[in-house]
Automatic annotation (TrEMBL):
PANTHER family: GH3 DOMAIN-CONTAINING PROTEIN, INDOLE-3-ACETIC ACID-AMIDO SYNTHETASE GH3.10. InterPro entries: GH3, GH3_C, GH3_M. The lineage of its organism: Eukaryota, Viridiplantae, Streptophyta, Embryophyta, Tracheophyta. Residues 463-578 form the GH3 C-terminal domain. Keywords: Ligase. It comes from Gossypium australe. Signal peptide: none annotated. Coiled coil: none annotated. Belongs to the IAA-amido conjugating enzyme family. It holds the Pfam family GH3_M. This is Jasmonic acid-amido synthetase JAR1-like. Residues 368-448 form the GH3 middle domain. One of its GO terms (cellular component) is cytoplasm.
Length: 598
């Protein structure tokens, strides 16, 4: 391997400089850059059915118009839209209508959003632009990371990535998750060459469609190439935790495979078997070394597994914010003192922001908006401090403002106009502006906008629930137990309705401690609507339901079985899905009701 340089050969550093300079240019004077982006989108999709609907038959010559006039005309004529508003148009595309509905260039590929937060998967148009921006943001983020954590050229990345099956829609369009399209794209290959860091697993492993077998092979190859591994990554942190927890159970089989240069019979998919067998060779010395390390790690509950097994890894890189924050504790346990770098902020609809401060703790990470990727607007959101108003209203909204007019400390919902044919599309994420890089805002991800827990006048979001669960589960660590995963449900079948929080825990905990956890969580919801309703008993005592070990794996299997991809999987933090609730109730082992407010 060559000397330290993140991007490999002699060109590495100049590549880094080029992309950082490019970002510095576009993040300066963002008002103009954003208007130019909007102009490009409207020009590209001039005359499409959806825009005609709002612009009327006027054939606006966008190129000739004053930029400010064009922007205000667009935002005054085209209304804000939700996915439901655009769904009939997207469905026609999926059914094979090739007329210019949302875009002038016919859409040939559709992405499926993960569907694990909203309960159902949504089709989103995917174009070459989607893969190109993915490559661009990954290269930019890599350039910033390499300033802080340089990696060796021609090294490897142990990437826990998973493609799901792609399929054809009724109209013959290719459909699959955005990550699946990306892993199959030319841009994914180019990224490896540009960053001179190569993924350990061949395409046959990434695309096998069986996440358990893929995880096994990722681990096997990651260990086979352990000396070359410079960093460990996944899309969402959940996948890394999931992979190492399965390693705890499978390490002996993996060592045997490394010793013999073989692949366990558990790996039944022929293409994947062959691809892995083509790579690995018998290495008994390495196998005994890993065995000795694992025997030692067992005694410390696998603390520091990553730096012990991958001594050259410089950092672990993945999305660790939002609903992934829960897995940080376990990730830190596996990683010891190895830096955790929180990855970029994006969605199937569009990439949004890049992490420019890789050394920041994941809890403090912000994302600088990419002003050429989409046209962004921000709906100011004000929390209701009174419980007045309808139970379905979480925030009071103001009129949307453009990117150049956001204010530090203010919370907003993001609205996107994309190159892929989404116009003033409400993304449903709540962010807070925490500062600026040049003129582009740095966003802190707060939560999904959709209310999670509602019985009557109470309003609790994903973030509120997360804080409450953190408080409640602190008691577990004092008793050498840990919270593996959690979800919740507002149970309305009996009056008064109440919240149920489901926990899967590792370790033995006395019932009196769990009672205390339950009470602590109930008392920790600070939303005035909840507090008042609990005091007057119009919301009943919170219920803590402990489920068997492995229940959340079953939930994962349920989602994967319905077409979700592990790379995009996020445990739903609140659910009304009847099948999921059945799984949770089937594996319930203990239930507690809170004594707070009694
Ligand atoms: P999907 O398009 O279904 O894969 O999920 C996109 C959603 O994941 C976004 O709208 C966010 O709610 C969440 N998300 C993506 N990136 C991040 C991030 N870096 N931090 C927190 N949440 C994220």
């Amino acid at each position: 391997m060559e000397a330290e340089d993140s991007n490999g050969n002699g060109n590495g550093r100049s590549n880094d400089h080029d992309i950082i300079r490019w970002f510095d240019t576009i993040s300066t004077n963002v008002a103009t850059v954003q208007r130019e982006t909007l102009r490009q989108i409207l020009e590209l999709n001039r005359g499409v059915e959806y825009l005609k609907k709002w612009f009327g038959d006027k054939d606006l010559d966008i190129r000739e118009m004053d930029a400010c006039e064009m922007e205000s005309l667009y935002t005054s004529l085209v209304p804000l839209a939700s996915h439901e508003d655009l769904e009939p148009f997207i469905q026609r595309i999926a059914d094979g209508d090739t007329s210019p509905i949302l875009t002038q260039h016919p859409i040939t590929t559709l992405s499926l959003s993960s569907g694990t937060t909203e309960g159902r998967q949504k089709f989103i148009p995917f174009t070459r632009h989607s893969s190109e921006t993915t490559l661009q943001i990954f290269r930019l983020a890599a350039a910033y990371r390499s300033r802080v954590y340089p990696t060796r050229s021609k090294g490897r990345i142990l990437e826990f990535i998973y493609s799901s099956k792609r399929f054809k829609t009724g109209g013959g369009l290719m459909a699959g998750t955005a990550t699946t399209h990306y892993f199959a794209s030319e841009e994914f290959r180019i990224k490896q060459e540009k960053t001179k860091l190569f993924t350990c697993s061949p395409h046959e492993v990434i695309s096998s469609g069986d996440y358990k077998q893929t995880t096994y092979c990722h681990l096997l190859l990651g260990l086979f190439f352990h000396k070359e591994v410079e960093c460990i990554t996944s899309t969402f942190a959940y996948s890394i935790v999931q992979a190492f927890s399965s390693f705890e159970e499978q390490w002996e089989d993996i060592c045997k495979d490394i010793k013999e240069g073989n692949v366990s019979n558990k790996i039944t998919l022929p293409k994947m078997r062959k691809a892995v067998l083509d790579i690995i060779e018998p290495n008994p010395i390495l196998a005994s070394r890993i065995e000795a390390i694992c025997e030692g790690l067992q005694g410390s509950d696998w603390f520091g597994l990553v730096p012990k097994l991958w001594p050259n890894a410089k950092y672990v890189y993945s999305i660790m914010t939002g609903s992934m924050q829960h897995y940080l504790k376990k990730l830190r346990h596996y990683c010891g003192s190895l830096p955790l770098v929180s990855a970029e902020y994006g969605s199937t609809e569009s990439w949004i922001g890049v992490n420019l401060d890789p050394s920041l703790e994941p809890e403090k990470v912000t994302f600088a908006v990419m002003p050429t990727f989409s046209y962004f607007e921000f709906i100011p959101l004000y929390r209701q401090d009174q419980y007045s108003g309808s139970g379905s209203v979480d925030f009071i909204e103001d009129d949307p403002v453009p990117l150049s007019q956001v204010k530090v400390g203010q919370e907003y919902e993001i609205v996107l106009t994309t190159f892929t044919g989404l116009y003033r599309y409400r993304l449903g994420d709540v962010v807070e502006v925490s500062g600026f890089h040049n003129e582009t805002p740095k966003l802190k991800f707060i939560c999904r906008r959709k209310l999670l827990l509602v019985v009557n006048i109470d309003k609790n979001t994903e973030k509120d629930l997360q804080l409450v669960v953190e408080r409640g589960s602190q008691l577990l660590s004092k008793h050498r137990a840990e919270l593996v995963d959690f979800t919740s449900h507002a149970k309305l079948t009996h009056q008064p309705g109440h919240y149920v929080i489901y926990w899967e825990i590792k370790g033995e905990v006395e019932e009196r401690v769990l009672c205390e956890c339950c009470r602590e969580m109930d008392a920790s919801f600070v939303d005035p609507g909840y507090v008042v309703s609990r005091r007057t008993n119009s919301i009943g005592p919170l219920e803590l339901c402990i489920v068997e070990r492995g229940t959340f794996k079953k939930i994962l299997d349920y989602f994967i079985g319905n077409g979700a991809a592990l790379s995009q999987f996020k445990t739903p933090r609140c659910t009304n899905d009847q099948t999921l609730l059945k799984i949770l109730d089937l594996y319930a082992v203990k239930r507690f009701r809170s004594t707070a407010y009694s």
